[in-house]
Write the structure tokens for this entry.
Amino acid sequence: MQRTTVVQYMQIKSQKFTRNCLSACLGGLLLTLGLASCGPMEPLSPSLPPIDSLHQAEGTGTDGDFTVSAAGTIVNRYAVLAASARQGDKTISLSTVAGQGVDALLPLAADDLLLIIQMQGADIDTSNAVSYGSVIDLRSAGRYEFIGVTAVDQASGQISVYTGCGGLKNSYEASSHVQVIRVPQYKNLTISAGGSVVAPAWNGQTGGIVALQVRDAVTLDGSIDVTGLGFRGGQKNPNLKQRLAGVGSYYRAPNSMDGGNRGESIVGYTTEYALSGAFGRGAAANGGGGGNRIGAGGGGGGGGGDPMQWHGQGVMSLSVVGAAQAWPLDPGYDANRTMFVGGGRGGYSYSSATLDPTMIAPGDLTWGDDFRRERGGLGGRPVPNDPTSRLFLGGGGGGGDDYQNTSGAGGRGGGLVFIDARSVAGAGKIIANGTSGQPATTTGSGAGGGGGGGTVVVATSTTLDGITINAHGADGGSQTVATAGAAGPGGGGGGGYITTAQSASVVPLANPGLGGTTASSDMTLFPRNGATDGAPGQIIQAALGPYAGAPYCSIADLAIALSATPPQAHEIDPFRLDIAVQNLGPGLSGNAQVALDLAPGVTVQSTDATNWSCRQTTKQLICKITSLPIGAAPVIAVNVTPAPGQTSMPFSATVSAPTTDLQLENNTASLTVDNPSPLVARPAGGGFACTVAGAAPSAEPSRLWLLGLTLGTLGLSRRRVRAVGGRIYG
């Protein structure tokens, strides 16, 4: 083989090789040694943002445009699941009780949207210890999903749901209070100044939730308000009898003489609590504990946060009167940490002596009566909200320990707001605050703990601007009578949980409630008398994808087309494959995947796929997109290098999604690209991309060029090569 013939050929092809990789030519050994300008192949679509940051919501809009101008407007309809449902079920059975069954959802038609959510049912530790109420197993508490209706049978109380996604995504326990809520699907929603969207208060069966799906824009100048519509506070527990002082430390007790009622939680309420002891200071999950005899305050309800960081003591604020001296005397004080997540603890039990609370510790016998013991209800725990799987109402505050029917009940937790829309903007508010614990009307009874902040999920694709979002915990109740003797004020509720999309420009707030105070003349140096604040809640940007990433199912006909440019390949010239995906409706799809099967030997050089996240396997290119609204998705452009020696290259692309697709025939497209003159020589190296300088060829090649050609020739020493007329054949 004459070197001059090879050089002539390389000069003829130099411009083409400037565009392509030197690995496609004869430099196998050169590639192995890493000469010329070689390096690792760049990853596919290196400039794309993470797919989780992309979201475009678009529902069916079947409820049209809607304007709310009146205060207290309810737009959802609520029913109760009568029989437990299992993952994969295609029908659900609703209650036969009037106002809780199918009748409560009417009018209801095919393609209407339902929210199914289990409110309670968690298993807890029931020890008579501080561990009382810690969650052992959430079971299906908080599980939820969105799913469409296919048929309604009012006579049997059954609703058939979409089946193309495999039916229900979760299992639900009817005994744990499962709501079935009709969610309106608006094109645009306007809430005018003075107008408000609310829900019925949670009553143990239904209520507490506002859920909206808006295809386009929410203009919010009024409010969406679920303040105090969440879990109920501990009821007043009237006690008309004198009790022995200094008795017991009851985290749970069956005797109503031993403490107040704890606040409602993801475990349940009075019926569920009675199984292990309905009274006492133990905090059941996010429900605040009741004051433990005599006269101790109730604990605040829990909201958002990490349950593992809970201690039950709340936040011992150093800014309150007497704090610097009084808090270090508290049995629950930690010099290294004065803030614990969840609700605040209720104040101390009853004392009758006039002493200095900044000098004499709680529990000292000189305080008289019940010795001002640390027996307030513990603050409710945070619960693990997750928009992709579980959401919860704010926990109820615990009731104060009572004497002569003068104690305070616990405050209610905040409700739940869920919005899926393209944009939300305006000068209005979304509010999911708790309500304050009730006051004690004498200094001999405890006040109620404040309700925990609720939950707000706002999943938007383009705009979240101007509005206010609050999920505050509420203040604990106070003792309002300025007489001698003192008992416990209520603990403050913990801040709630707020999640928005990453595009959010608002500043959500989930502030804690403050502990109550006593007006007792014995406690002017430390009016808190042991009642602590709740802790701030949790605010994260995690509402990504349709319905914030929650399980959902809709009907959407996906279609795919595949084309090549140019339609016929030439030698080793790269060509482009265009993958066009469409959602033909009628509903939104999402979490869609395109799988491109590559012809053997074809190499992917790069992709251009806006809003798609792509990765390459050995034989496929896989691209995924979070949301697929009705219409055309951005085209996936794939630049490939022809397979050496192949005159025909078959490609196939398939689109799929976890939605009901009634026309599967258009989910796959195939294409064959011919190459009448394929390059036969194969590169010896692999896994590298190489570039050649774009200078015009010269009569005398550079030394590096000649070295590369020489080493490339050695790499082909086992092939028979002959040069004819300036072209290479093998």
User: Anything to note?
Assistant: The domain at 42-55+554-674 is CATH 2.60.40.1510 (Immunoglobulin-like). The two ends are 12 Å apart (CA to CA). The first strand starts at residue 37 and ends at 40.
